[in-house]
């Protein structure tokens, strides 16, 4: 019991971690966003450890929506972000954002899968569903998304499943996610040498699923 409490204290709340990873900073950077051969300036708000919501103007949004309708997953993500934030001259509509995120996520677009994981975890636009949240985060993690791997590890850590927590945070660290290092090291301190060796064998053999 005490070990489980210490783990929860050390990892804090996974809800706070997820919210932190999606937080939009005030600084903006310009990207070249290519959709259907059209080069469009798109402003992307930096977020901690996660692809941030895309901020677009009206004309750009029209082109993004056309590309989204044609099945472009990056455009679908941008359309979802525009509806989530109420950008580009459209009203905020989180349920429509969910529709676009789901379309992109089902094509294997990991940022969209993370968006869905976040929404289900926080009950935004959908009823809160931790199992469904984990399902979407796990889908992205299995495709090799390091941020999703970190969050999956934290979720398993919160549940007390230290083997899976160590496995997924180890994968995230291997992919260069520095935010996962402290959690991985703390979880490792709660496992035996044999347990850690067994997990590391899984890590060494692991390969992402084809998208």
Sequence-ordered SSE layout with sheet pairings:
Blueprint: H1 2-11, H2 14-21, E1 24-35, E2 38-47, E3 54-55, H3 58-69, H4 73-85, H5 94-105, H6 110-122, H7 130-142, H8 146-159, H9 162-174, H10 181-189, H11 193-205
Antiparallel strand pairs: 1-2, 2-3
Helix pairs in contact: 3-4, 4-5, 5-6, 6-7, 7-8, 8-9, 9-10, 9-11
Key traits:
mainly alpha; 211 residues; 62% helix; 11 helices; 3-stranded antiparallel sheet; Serine Threonine Protein Phosphatase 5, Tetratricopeptide repeat
Characterization of the model:
- The protein is 62% helix and 11% strand.
- It is mainly alpha-helical and 211 residues long.
- The protein has one domain (2-205): Tetratricopeptide repeat domain (Serine Threonine Protein Phosphatase 5, Tetratricopeptide repeat).
- The protein has a three-stranded antiparallel β-sheet.
- Strand 1 and strand 2 form a beta hairpin.
- It is elongated, with a radius of gyration of 18 Å.
User: What's the number of structural domains?
Assistant: 1
* Backbone CA Rg: 18 Å
> Span between N and C termini?
40 Å
Shape: elongated
- Share of helix, binned: 55-70%
Individual helix count = 11
Assign the CATH architecture: Alpha Horseshoe
**What percent of residues are in strands?**
5-15%
Mean pLDDT: 79
User: Class in CATH?
Assistant: Mainly Alpha
